[in-house]
Amino acid sequence: MLIGIDIGTGGCKVTLIDYRKSMVKTAFEEYVTHRPRPTWCEQDPEEWYSAMKAAVRRLLAEVNGKVDALSIDGQTHAAVLVDENGVHLRRSIIWTDQRSIKQAEKIREIIGHQRIIEITYN
Fold this sequence. Notes:
- This protein is of the alpha+beta class.
- Helices cover about 30% and strands about 25% of the residues.
């Protein structure tokens, strides 16, 4: 069996593929996007972890067999700041957050849109 885990913006989707039986099962656990101010978007890494555990457990309870491989992906541009013990320090500022829009516009004004693309490839 193969398990794929997608820690996405709206929730965690887990897919289990039993290639011997051509069976695919999925589970989804939603989590909250916190918006403490109008342009801010933050998520709690602990909620990602809890959602992942719940979805994986739900799927594994439905099947028997050995997991041969596991793949995990996550959202882009979502840093998790941790202390020396690996404990997260705050909610993660996710890719939809726009609190730095004024700074981004100033940078674009100074160096130009094309140069930003050349530097970031984005």
